[in-house]
Amino acid sequence: MSTKDGLARSKERGSESVVGVRDKDDRQRQYYDMLAVKLEGLLSEIEKSGVPPEDDLVERLRALHKEVSRTDTGSREG
User: Which of 4, 24, 33, 77 has its CA 20 to 30 A from that of 51?
Assistant: First the structure.
C-alpha cells in the first residue's frame, strides 16, 4: 500500500466519523425536542390541577424544561 492510499483511507475514515457525530447530534436534538414537548404537557397539567407554582417539584420541572429547551436551540455547549 502506498502512502497516498493510506492518506486517502485515513481521510475517508475521518469523513465517516464526522457524519456519525452529526447523526448522533441530530438524534439527540430530536430526543430533546420530544422531551421538551412532554415536559410542557406535564407542566400544563400540573398548573391546571392547582399545584402551587412555588412547589419544589414544579420548580425543578421548570428548570429541567428550561435546560432541555436551551439545549434544543443549540445554545448549550457540550
Answer: 33
